[in-house]
Amino acid sequence: MLGLMNHWRQAIEKLRATEIDVSGKFRILRVWAIIIGNVPGSLAPFVTLAIYALVALTSGDHTLLVTQAFTSLALINLVTEPLLMFCQALPSLTQAVSCFSRIENFLIINSPLWHLKSHSPLEEDTTAMPLRFRAEHSSSPHLVTFQSADISWFPKNHHEQVVLRNLNFSIPTGFTAIVGPVGSGKTSLLASIIGETTVVSGEMQSHITSRVAFCAQKPWLTNDTIKNNIIGELEFDQTWFSYVIQSCALGEDLENLPGGIMTVVGENGLSLSGGQRQRVVCRATESSNFKYRT
User: Fold this and answer.
1) What is the three-class DSSP state of 168?
2) Are 241 and 230 a contacting pair, CB within 8 Å?
3) 199 membership: H or E segment, kind and range
4) pLDDT at 50
């Protein structure tokens, strides 16, 4: 529809050609490894008996008992079998080493540092209360404070990848709405609040002392029923469940679905529309298991 079909097709074909080229070299190496692993087992009996025949001709001993022949073949098999397994395991070993290097590169990435400041012990009671009521009784006036902060989705050594620059503001306890045009950085800011980004420079202080319910712009759902995606790890409560269905405007959707609340959403909510996935994920805003909602 946008006239980009040919462009993307060519790009995908180039990537596929590169993939086949790299994969072809790997397959050739694997074939040679299998050949080298199988050759000793196939040629060892022939070579052994041929050498014995030469020795017998030179020494004049032409006797070869059946017990000696089968014993020799058994010993040859015991020696060549480990060699065969080792040669066939070499490609898998190289793949494992490359996987270890990728895992190592991920583990050595610097995690974002959180500066948690709280002047009161953690609250044990997680009963849901109105946001305005929490704002009046909070021990800290601000939940999150940014001071000359530069935000990036990459580690600190990628200064050219900064998406939000020179942030100087505080988010008070209570209800706060972040509005702005498309691409202005709302998603990046929310991700920064929950620690999913990196503070390249400056400082971000967080006074969040409890679990956070986060509804991402692109919702993620488990391959399970709508009911299990809503209740999550909580015990089923019919009163709360009915309240969530009403609050998230899921009643009409459930009536139109053949399985109702037992409808399997599929991989990442594939069987639901984008709006339906968003409404299912919004159940986090009504959960009493979270003190903060984002």
Assistant:
1) strand
2) yes
3) strand 198-206
4) 82
Sign of CA dihedral 14, 15, 18, 24: negative
Torsion sign over Cα 165, 114, 108, 211: negative
Secondary structure of 227-294 in HEC code, one letter for each residue: HHHHHCCCCCCHHHHHHHHHHCCCHHHHHHCCCHHHCECCCCCCCCCHHHHHHHHHHHHHCCCCCEEC
pTM of the predicted model as reported, rounded to 2 decimal places: 0.46
pLDDT number for residue 160? 60
pLDDT beneath 50: ranges in the chain: 1, 115-138, 291
The domain locations on the chain are 5-107, 115-210, 226-293
How do beta strands 162-172 and 292-293 pair? Answer: unpaired
The whole-angstrom separation of Cα 173 and Cα 190 is 15
CA distance 293 to 193: 11
